[in-house]
Specification:
There is one protein chain. The radius of gyration is 33 Å and the shape is elongated. It has one helix at about 1-35; strands spanning about 55-60, 65-75, 80-85, 95-100, 105-110, 115-125, 130-135, 140-150. It has an 8-stranded antiparallel beta barrel. The relative contact order is 0.12. It folds into 2 domains: about 1-40; about 50-150, Lipocalin (Beta Barrel). By secondary structure, it is α+β, with helices and mostly antiparallel strands.
Length: about 150
């Protein structure tokens, strides 16, 4: 009887060791799966274009000039990272602006009536943009601050 118990005991130890090897392999496989899964690029749940927050019609209060006017911002069809600001600085023409995060950058450009303009606009909220820009007619330069609201 002792002989049979010894065989059973050695058999159960052998099964236990085999079971432990399988358990270790399964745990390692799961660890690799979890590690590689965390390296997968997540799909953005908010696929909106960063330009979209700027688009629309804005009422502008141009403080130094003491004028109010309307600017319509639309996507630039020829440059995907740019917008067109129609009637910027109340000149009747469009300014081309590069969207960088929450900022619109207007590089030095002719915006109509022989005025050059450059400056930046900052997105403050859904209903507010703030622009600081320089208007240059070739003789004088005006520093302007304008608040866009809707």
């Amino acid at each position: 009887m002792k002989k049979h118990l010894k065989q059973f005991d050695s058999l159960s130890q052998s099964n236990f060791i085999t079971f432990n090897k399988w358990a270790v392999k399964i745990i390692l496989c799961l660890a690799f799966v979890v590690a590689f899964h965390s390296c997968v690029v997540e799909d953005d749940n908010n696929p909106t274009d960063p330009i979209d927050k700027f688009l629309g019609t804005w009422n502008v209060s141009d403080q130094p000039a003491r004028i109010n006017y309307t600017v319509t911002i639309v996507k630039n069809p020829s440059q995907s990272a740019n917008v067109l600001l129609n009637n910027f600085a109340d000149m009747g023409e469009s300014a081309n602006g590069l969207v960088v995060g929450n900022t619109i950058v207007i590089d030095n450009q002719d915006i109509g009536n022989d005025f050059l303009c450059n400056g930046t606009g900052t997105y403050k909220s859904v209903n507010r943009l703030e622009f600081e820009f320089i208007l240059d007619d070739g003789i004088d330069q005006e520093n302007r601050k304008a608040v866009f609201t809707r």
